[in-house]
Design goal:
Blueprint lengths: L31 E3 L2 H4 L2 E3 L14 E3 L5 H4 L5 E3 L7 E4 L24 H5 L2 E5 L6 E6 L5 E3 L3 E2 L1 E2 L2 E2 L1 H30 L2 E8 L8 E9 L1 H5 L3 H9 L3 H10 L2 H13 L3 H6 L6
Antiparallel strand pairs: 1-7, 2-8, 2-9, 3-5, 4-5, 6-7, 10-11, 12-13
Length: 277
């Protein structure tokens, strides 16, 4: 899977007049730039013809712990790895085809759209040195154009729309801090394990593996001591963990989606062994 961008906890967002350097890469951002009136003052955002084309090849989308109860209804929610337990909403099997973005570049209606996608083309990135955050925009975004419908700046200052987008990004980063803490707790309880999604082909009694991933170890979850369960409950983690376990039922629907998208039977899709991790 493509790895998610690294997130540092929000402390202070730099103003666009302060000197900063942007290095590294950001997941799904082709050309991230520090937002400034000098570079982007004449630009605005219009709805592109294919609004979600930028993530049409994503296999999984990073989500925050607060998103899991909503995301678990539509996607298998897994972890990037045991060492980096970042929650991911799986949107593809095998190749780079997001099964929730259609040929018109539209995300399927009535399906949860992760916050990472909704905040795009805005984001926050680390200052080269220090703890402050910088406002970033993807210059390659199709909807970013001179004189766009929604101005980025007005009279040299951030527009109300840009301010709202930045506030959303700041909220997302705060949720990332909570998510990082969630992951550290899971490592302490040793509740993450490599797992395999399996499918039973038509006319067979033998299950066939079709996806490997890191998820909540349900066996260890059920074997926790009363004191451990109480600790997790007080931290508000139990509902999140069970939501992730329940989300595993979406592997089958993902298999069906791939079959429909490519005109295959579910047996054929499973036989391709479209391993996720």
């Amino acid at each position: 899977m493509g790895s998610a961008a690294k997130h540092t906890h929000e402390r202070e967002v730099m103003s666009e007049t302060e000197a900063a350097q942007l290095t590294g890469s950001m997941f799904l951002f082709e050309k991230p730039e520090l937002l400034s009136a000098d570079a982007h003052g004449q630009l605005g955002i219009s709805r592109p013809n294919e609004p979600h084309a930028f993530c049409a090849k994503a296999k999984a989308i990073p989500i925050t712990v607060t998103e899991i109860p909503a995301a678990m209804k539509d996607y298998p929610v897994i972890f990037m790895s045991q060492e980096k337990p970042i929650p991911l909403a799986v949107v593809a099997l095998g190749d780079e085809t997001n099964l929730f973005v259609d040929e018109k570049g539209e995300w399927e209606a009535n399906r949860y759209i992760p916050g990472y996608i909704r905040r795009y083309p805005f984001g926050l990135a680390n200052e080269t040195s220090g703890d402050r955050m910088a406002i970033v925009i993807d210059r390659a975004f199709e909807g970013l154009e001179p004189g766009g419908n929604i101005a980025l700046f007005e009279n040299g200052e951030l527009s109300d729309a840009s301010q709202q987008a930045i506030e959303f990004c700041k909220t997302f980063e705060r949720d990332r801090k909570t998510t990082d803490e969630f992951g550290e707790h899971l490592k302490r309880f040793d509740l993450i394990a490599g797992q395999t999604a399996q499918y039973t082909p038509t006319g067979s009694t033998e299950q066939q593996p079709f996806a490997q991933y890191f998820g909540v170890d349900e066996k260890k979850l059920n074997e926790l001591t009363d004191d451990q369960v109480l600790e997790l409950r007080k931290m508000g983690m139990l509902p999140i963990l069970y939501a992730m376990v329940m989300s595993m039922g979406n592997w089958r629907s993902l298999l069906s989606r791939r079959a429909v998208r490519f005109g295959l039977s579910e047996d054929q899709v499973a036989a391709q062994n479209p391993v996720v991790n």
